[in-house]
Structure to design on (432 residues):
């Protein structure tokens, strides 16, 4: 990015929109898993536009699908007319969702998808009481922000919902961190029962939870926790919303949806990001009985438009035809095992965590559990200098986040791993 473009950015865009890096960059081209900035510098991309460019850059099958739709002259019609691409994609998503008798409503973003799920759930249950999880992130609109358990992303205390909070799966700090996986599940289920008995009027609408907390730094609970929670929810008729905005489409490697690691089926599932591979596409899928709980006319002007759903169909077809879920498991293991072996034992690394191609490294002050966002930022900058783009996150800003395209090759995984290990070890003052 030129100084002039940076100055122009600052002159017309709000200051609360952050820019990465001490010297912000403008990305001007991309191919596969690599992008190039305005200065001609090439980078291996391990963040994919915040886990959105799921298939990578300049993919012929996706480009050609969009070009075919553009050639018809129809970019937008609104959902007042039949949209073939939308119906076809809805059929595929309903079938893959694991939810019986599913219906799909398309939106433009994960925020809108979660907002729609909350609208449906509160209508269905005739209650504005909702359970949410600490350290979570669900979006920037009022209801979505109201169920976001991270102060850094809560721009307002105003909330249309009455929210009660459950413990996250944090294994580094917090009341449940010192427990074994089974003990943590038991304690979290006991906590849910107590929250329902003490903080609610009983008629709770839903629990919304991310299988892996994205903005929260890829924190996730032990497998099986959602099953424990779901048993309690079912006793009270409370709906379960799985926020799969970041975990969906096989990114975790072991399952197509993050919720499947827990052996449960949600009532509602929200999706976004990767399904559009950069085109604005998101939505909510749920049981017909639940999703039909809207007592007035409602639609999304741009949600599921012909262009975005043409891209979405091509993305999902490519994902399945190339078995990218298996690739996420394979190359994700290279990264996870390599990071744990090379830097997992350092005093400044609290945890290497995540699943598939959704990995995080949490940094702390050596020998403590005190977050070290300054070290995290140095590693972040050093990785860019080495030719690798990553992300940051976590409640304390001390987690390096990696969500590469699911098309990442084994050679690229090892290349990125080498850059990451060098950046971490050098910034931690460890000899090569």
């Amino acid at each position: 990015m030129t100084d002039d473009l940076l100055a122009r950015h600052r002159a017309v865009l709000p200051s609360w929109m952050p820019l990465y890096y001490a010297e912000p960059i403008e990305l001007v081209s991309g191919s596969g898993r690599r992008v190039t900035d305005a200065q001609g510098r090439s980078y291996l991309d391990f963040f994919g536009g915040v886990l959105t460019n799921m298939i990578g850059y300049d993919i012929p099958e996706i480009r050609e699908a969009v070009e075919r739709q553009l050639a018809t002259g129809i970019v937008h019609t609104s959902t007042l007319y039949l949209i073939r691409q939308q119906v076809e994609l809805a059929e595929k998503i309903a079938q893959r969702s694991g939810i019986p008798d599913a219906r799909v409503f398309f939106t433009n973003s994960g925020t809108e998808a979660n907002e729609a799920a909350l609208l449906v759930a509160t209508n269905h249950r005739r209650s504005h009481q909702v359970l949410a999880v600490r350290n979570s992130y669900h979006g920037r609109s009022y209801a979505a922000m109201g169920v976001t358990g991270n102060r850094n992303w809560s721009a307002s205390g105003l909330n249309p919902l009455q929210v009660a909070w459950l413990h996250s799966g944090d294994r580094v700090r917090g009341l449940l961190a010192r427990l074994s996986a089974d003990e943590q599940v038991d304690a979290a289920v006991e906590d849910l029962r107590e929250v329902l008995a003490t903080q609610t009027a009983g008629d709770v609408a839903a629990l919304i939870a991310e299988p892996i907390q994205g903005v929260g730094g890829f924190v996730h609970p032990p497998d099986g926790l959602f099953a424990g929670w779901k048993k309690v929810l079912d006793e009270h008729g409370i709906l379960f919303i799985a926020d799969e905005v970041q975990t969906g489409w096989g990114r975790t490697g072991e399952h197509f949806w993050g919720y499947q690691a827990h052996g449960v089926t949600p009532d509602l599932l929200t999706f976004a990001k990767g399904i559009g591979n950069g085109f604005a596409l998101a939505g909510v899928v749920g049981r017909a009985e639940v999703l039909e709980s809207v007592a007035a006319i409602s639609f999304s002007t741009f949600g599921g438009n012909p262009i975005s759903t043409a891209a979405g169909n091509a993305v999902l077809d490519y994902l399945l035809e190339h078995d990218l879920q298996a690739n996420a498991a394979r190359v994700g293991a290279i990264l996870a095992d390599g990071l744990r072996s090379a830097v997992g034992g350092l005093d400044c690394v609290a945890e290497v965590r995540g699943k598939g191609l959704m990995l995080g490294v949490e940094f702390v002050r050596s020998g403590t559990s005190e977050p070290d966002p300054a070290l995290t930022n140095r590693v972040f900058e050093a990785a860019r200098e080495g030719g690798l783009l990553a992300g940051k996150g976590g409640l304390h800003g001390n987690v390096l986040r990696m969500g590469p395209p699911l098309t990442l090759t084994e050679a690229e995984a090892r290349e990125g791993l080498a850059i990451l290990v060098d950046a971490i070890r050098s910034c931690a003052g460890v000899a090569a």
The CA atoms of residues 180 and 222 lie 9 Å apart. The radius of gyration is 21 Å. The longest strand covers residues 349-355.
